[in-house]
Amino acid sequence: TTVDELKKLIENATIEANTYEFPTDARKFEAKDDKIIELGSYDFVIIGGGVAGSVIASRLSEIRRWNVLVLEAGKVEESEFNEMLGYTAFLALSDLSWGFSSVPQTTACLGFLNQTCRAYRARGMGGTSLMNGAVYERGMPSTFDEWAEITNDPSWSYENVLPLFEKSEDFHLRNPNTPVESEYHGKGGLLNVEQKIPEDFVTSLFLEGQKELGTDIVDYNGRSQLGASIFQLYTKNGRRQDVYEAFLKPVKHRRNLHISTESYVTKIDIHRLSKKAKGVIFTRNGKTYRVKSTKEVILTAGVFQTPQLLMLSGIGPRDHLQEMGITVIRDLEVGSKLKEDPICQALYITTNITKITDTLDQRLQQFLQGEGPLTQAYSTSGVAFLKSQFEEQNYADIEFIAASLEKSEFDVRYAGWKNETYQAAWGDNTNAIAINIHNVNPRSSGTVRLKNADPFEYPLIDFNLMSDPEGHDMEVLYEGINRVFDLLKTPSFQNINPQYKGSPLPGCEDYQFLSKDYWYCFLRQTCTAAFHVRGSCPMGSDPDEGAIVDSRLRVFGVRRLRVADSSVLPTSMSGHPVGTIIMIAEKAAQTIKYDYKSSQ
Ligand SMILES: Cc1cc2nc3c(=O)[nH]c(=O)nc-3n(C[C@H](O)[C@H](O)[C@H](O)COP(=O)(O)OP(=O)(O)OC[C@H]3O[C@@H](n4cnc5c(N)ncnc54)[C@H](O)[C@@H]3O)c2cc1C
After folding, report:
1. Which helix (H) or strand (E) holds 365?
2. Per-residue confidence band for 598, with pLDDT thresholds at 50, 70 and 90
3. What is the ipTM of this complex?
């Protein structure tokens, strides 16, 4: 590829992003008549070819006598534009995007249009890894020990899941300054993991400042996540390598694997009396099909559409299903414990750094060498996982992400800001360092519910961020703000004369500027969803306590149906979920092989 060809791709994507209208439903998948075409049967039918679905399909199709069908609503996406992480945000405003948003919120996202938080998810083989930041992170080892306790199943302990993390990974140390605990990393797996090079000024500054505050510089995927680091990314030579490309594309020609794209599943067919999943109904190109599963249906449609499909198929909270006119097959608290992290990305710090102005041609040349700013998303690669004073165990609950930013119209569109809030947050600045504050272990939770029984309507997503009655999540975020100001006082940061020059935000004028009450108001206006949503169908040992799947990822009370995506995370994992979702998918495949006595 040449620089000019890449420039053309950028030009087209910019036009699309600036004119893109978010869909509000999935009606484009609707069939033109009521006829159902019978398609025969497969051993396994996987719903959704996203992060988890791609991994599971890859592993199950290793068994040659098993036929595996993947049904994915999107397409196979192979544009080189998608590989430039520097343009990640543009992908959310393209046809890759489902375009979800939350229902109007009262406790967060107040500075965003209609008081809603964006809830981006991608469609296409590879799922949301097609449009995400490609950060590879596993959380704290003790998280998995807690999962082993919650599920009463020691196979989830860190000691037991570490080999599965390692199995997927092919780790490459590109930045020799970063500490790496190699005994925690895999070599030769399907997912390339590396760091962006070269290290940029803001990242180095951030790490120096953290050191001056006494923070350890660590391998956050090693013994302990706590400390400051450079992001590990699942890119390959600086290019996005989505999970389909890593796990499924190399084996897509297997004769026992069938990938059906543009196939939108509307229902899981479950026998009412035996409560056995028999197959699924889906639409494709205006027609409706039924396909049977002789072994299992595996649901990996993501954190919003997995619970939506369960509820449409009669598995969900009894009252809600009855209200929607859906026959109840199994009363379970599907969608009742949705977890999302609040992130505040509006603390813009002015400095005396002269902006480095590489031309687009130079940046593209660097990209073609596998280096430079276009090989990372959101201009960020410095990160710190920290413990607030409110964290009683040994988990990180604050994550800082350092970014070098410019004020832009595009940001307003991408995040859905109210223009006046965005302008006030920037004050008179146009360039800044932002230290994003991310509460990675929140107590608040929300819900996913159906709007009605129509499968072509979008689900209702209510994040309910920062709403816990004790106010814990707000206190953690407020501590985050204070700790940013501590960072600005370090000698390294003092060298660049950092100053906060934001103006009072609309809606917060009644509070004394920069007082605790003001910052509380600021947080409610500017915190939004971090896109690390999980837990809408949590794993556990007791359905009466809200668990939807058991430790083998089988839906309670329904046979031959598993859920194995971001929906099943039973707790926060203090960070970025893809690494863990891949591990869960590896474990699901391993469990299924074991259950059908076909391990290899
Ligand atoms: C902008 C953004 C940045 C992010 N950055 C990071 C990051 O840097 N690191 C990280 O770890 N995480 C990140 N995440 C989160 C991460 O990408 C998701 O948590 C992860 O992709 C979820 O995986 P999944 O398998 O559960 O679902 P998905 O990957 O979303 O896959 C679900 C698939 O199911 C398909 N599907 C849905 N409904 C149907 C249906 N009815 N019929 C057929 N197919 C269907 C979808 O089209 C999709 O392909 C980010 C997310 C976003 C939005």
Report:
1. helix 360-368
2. low
3. 0.99
**Catalytic: 271?**
no
Task: Report whether 272 contacts 329 (CB < 8 A).
Answer: yes
101 and 24 Cβ atoms separated by less than 8 Å? no
338: phi then psi, degrees, rounded to nearest 5:
-60, 130
**Cα distance between residue 353 and residue 323, in whole Å:** 58
- Please give the pLDDT value at position 71: 98
The pLDDT of residue 379 is above 50 = yes
**Which residue CA neighbors atom 14 of ligand 1 most closely?**
132
Task: Place 599 in a pLDDT band, splitting at 50, 70 and 90.
Answer: very low
Q: Within 13 Å, how many C-alpha atoms sit on residue 301's CB side?
A: 25
Q: H helices of 120-271, where?
A: 141-151, 158-168, 201-212, 243
Domains of the chain: 194-240+340-447+458-529 (3.30.560.10)
The per-residue pLDDT of the chain, averaged, comes to: 96
Give me ligand 1 centre to Cα 543, in Å: 26
574: Cβ below 6 Å to ligand 1?
no
- Tell which residue, 402, 455, 458, 35, has the closest CA to residue 266: 455
Task: Give the length of the chain.
Answer: 600
